[in-house]
Design a protein that fits this description.
The chain is an all-alpha fold. The protein contains 12 helices and no strands. The radius of gyration is 27 Å and the shape is flat.
Amino acid sequence: MPFDPPVRAEYEIALTPLADVPLERPLGLWHRIWQQGWLRKSVILLVLALLWELAARWQNNDLLLPSFSQTALAFVDGVVTGELPGKVWISLQVLLKGYLIGIVLSLILTTLAVSTQLGRDLLSTLTSMFNPLPAIALLPLALLWFGLGDNSLIFVLVHSVLWALTLNTYAGFLAVSDTLRMAGRNYGLRGVRFVLFILVPAALPSILAGLRIGWAFAWRTLIAAELVFGASSGKGGLGWYIFQNRNELYTDKVFAGLAMVTLIGLLVEHLGFNTIERLTVKRWGMQR
């Protein structure tokens, strides 16, 4: 054709096939094993346990720093006797109540904020006032209002969950694209249905981040509150277990209680939130 550009031979380079070069080198056995995340994390934990054992033997004072082996024995003894699981169950019952109430209140606040101007002003004012306030600082007020009992703990737990989750959720809602918003409105979605079917799925990564942060805040707030007054109605949770053993100078049991706090955090993180992320936002291509 007359409009075809001329062919210049000096720019034509013949490519030789790479038949003898493998496209990719297979990984060795060691590299395939090391690719397993659980193995790398297990190695880190083993190294930390070894350093703990060496530091305790060098310190040579069980009252100040029991060894890892002593703590492990105290942990196993607490689990076998049922004392530790019982304390954990008491704490988790209170934690779940406060956590769920905080989630519901957060959903209500964010729904109002994305629906009305008054809701946005209310959310901005409340978060500016109460988000900087430590939850544990409200404990004396909670004791005055609700007395010694679970209600006081639930009150401070709701405070610790509510603002972190609300801020992350609202930021995720604001980041939803206008295309998705217009698509939802074209389908006639308004109010709560618009939030549930458009905003929540699109903002799920931010919501999960808020849930994770809220869980961490609630868990450590609960343990701190139980360390202060956690026994109610003749029973106390995991924080109270740590406090009692500290008073009785059973330092190995104190470390066993702290190890249980850490273990529950790891289980919730890896078996809970990571599983939810893998089944939702990562499968949907919303997160790497």
